[in-house]
């Protein structure tokens, strides 16, 4: 056997071993119940406790989540159309009002994390209309469905583990609701990011992203940890625009946040 063939075989065996450790995926909901048992074993191996496992086993396949995942049309709009559809002028107007009303909060966040109020408020307005609608979909079911689905299993698996660990620590429950992709709270954190970057902004001893102060502090912390440079610009072509890309991968979203943030900040 040649060295090349030996290497190829070894690689294949490693890949097969890795695949055998991960729960299977499917493009339909028909095998979801069987998948949950496989995923539970994987979650236990990742350190998830019994409350998290129970939440996974109580979850159900979310057809609404799959529908939303297949129909994200607004990200294909032009920038002008995207901003019109997403209500940019309303976000800017209300963002200015909220900045003035909560000046101390946003000043404290900028002092600590270096992120200007405009960026945080633009994200808040874009994601949930400033908390007006934070979702109606079971978080664990949504993120489990996306992990089970073959389209982006590898991306969502760490977020499912994160969601189950959030259940373990009491930050969310098996009944907590969020957006269609399992995002949680005022600025719609995916669970793995909530676990990693969530901050107890109001000092009550827990991270609750349905709480405005916790959510704003967590969003600022996420951006800072992703490389935000205090005092530098965040418009397209400026240093901190690259950090906005870490929040959302859609170009029109990134551009809209930068434009709205600048106008909110004045």
Automatic annotation (TrEMBL):
GO terms for biological process: peptidoglycan catabolic process. Coiled coil: none annotated. CDD domains: Slt35-like (cd13399). GO terms for molecular function: peptidoglycan lytic transglycosylase activity. It holds the Pfam family SLT_2. InterPro entries: Lysozyme-like_dom_sf, MltB-like, SLT_2. Residues 1-22 form the signal peptide. Keywords: Signal. Gene3D superfamilies: Bacterial muramidase (1.10.8.350). Residues 33-234 form the Transglycosylase SLT domain. This is Lytic murein transglycosylase. It comes from Pseudotabrizicola algicola.
């Amino acid at each position: 056997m040649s060295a090349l063939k030996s290497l190829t075989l070894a690689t294949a065996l490693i890949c097969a071993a890795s695949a055998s450790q991960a729960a299977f995926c499917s493009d339909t909901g028909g095998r979801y119940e069987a998948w949950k048992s496989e995923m539970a074993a994987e979650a236990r191996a990742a350190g998830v406790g019994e409350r998290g496992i129970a939440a996974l086993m109580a979850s159900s396949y979310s057809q609404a989540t799959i529908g939303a995942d297949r129909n994200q049309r607004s990200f294909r709009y032009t920038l002008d159309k995207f901003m019109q559809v997403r209500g940019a002028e309303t976000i800017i107007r209300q963002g200015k009002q909220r900045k003035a009303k909560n000046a101390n909060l946003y000043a404290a966040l900028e002092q600590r994390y270096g992120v200007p109020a405009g960026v945080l408020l633009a994200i808040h307005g874009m994601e949930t209309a400033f908390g007006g609608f934070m979702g109606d979909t079971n978080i664990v079911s949504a993120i489990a469905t996306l992990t089970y689905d073959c389209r982006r299993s590898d991306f969502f698996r760490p977020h499912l583990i994160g969601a189950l660990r959030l259940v373990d620590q009491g930050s969310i429950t098996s009944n907590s609701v969020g957006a269609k992709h399992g995002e949680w709270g005022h600025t719609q954190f995916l669970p793995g990011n909530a676990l990693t970057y969530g901050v107890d902004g109001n000092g009550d001893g827990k991270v609750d992203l349905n709480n405005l102060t916790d959510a704003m502090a967590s969003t600022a912390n996420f951006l800072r940890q992703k490389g935000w440079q205090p005092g530098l610009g965040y418009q397209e072509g400026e240093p901190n625009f690259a950090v906005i890309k870490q929040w959302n991968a859609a170009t029109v979203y990134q551009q809209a946040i930068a434009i709205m943030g600048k106008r909110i900040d004045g």
